[in-house]
Amino acid sequence: MEPPVAWRTMETGLAHRERSGRGVAAAMVVGWLSGVLSAGAVLLALAHAGLSLPLLSALGPGGDRAVPPAAIAFSVLAVLAAVVAAGAFARRSWAWPLGLVVHALAVFGAATPFRGPVSLVGILLSLSALAVLLSRSGRTALLVRR
Question: How do the residues of the chain divide into helix, strand and coil, expressed in percent and rounded to 5?
């Protein structure tokens, strides 16, 4: 037997309020953090490809010499973080698990060969995104089926 119409409306109203309130903010925060991480990864990929970027070359340990494995890794991170950002802005359910994996790997990748302030920025961005993704509003925003 189906529940009364009032109950269905109430449940839908509660879910809608949660999705449209804090949920929108959580999805936007994840989108922006992932976008900033993607932009930073693009810059690091270019710097590790041998392009001389004054600020990054001064901060990095290797100057402007090319490090192809790192350039490839940062390129992959840039693409994946951009996909997470697009999915979060569009509030797609696949953005939640992909965001968890990408940001967790970014924390691990930045922490294992810790390289100073640049690694710290990446770690803080990804930990912030993970905290939002794991929060109730982050889960509700991106895991709710429409």
Answer: 80, 0, 20
CA distance 45 to 69: 10
CA nearest 132: which of 28, 11, 5, 8? 28
Find the helix packing angle between 136-143 and 95-111, rounded to 10°.
Answer: 130
Identify residue 28 by its one-letter amino acid code. Answer: M
Which of the 8 DSSP states describes residue 54? Answer: H
Residues 6+ apart with CB under 8 A from 76: none
Under DSSP, the state recorded for 116 is S
Interatomic CA distance for residues 51 and 126, integer angstroms: 25
Residue pointed to by tokens 């041998």: 50
Of the candidates 18, 31, 19, 40, the one whose C-alpha atom is nearest the C-alpha of residue 129 is 31
Instruction: Please state whether the predicted TM-score (pTM) of the whole model is above 0.85.
Output: no
Mean pLDDT over 20-25 rounds to 72
Are residues 76 and 32 in contact, defined by beta-carbon separation less than 8 angstroms?
Answer: no
Specify the residue for token string 């930045």: 110
For the cut 50, the answer to whether the pLDDT of residue 14 exceeds it is no
- Look over the chain and give the mean of its residue pLDDT values, rounded to a whole number: 84
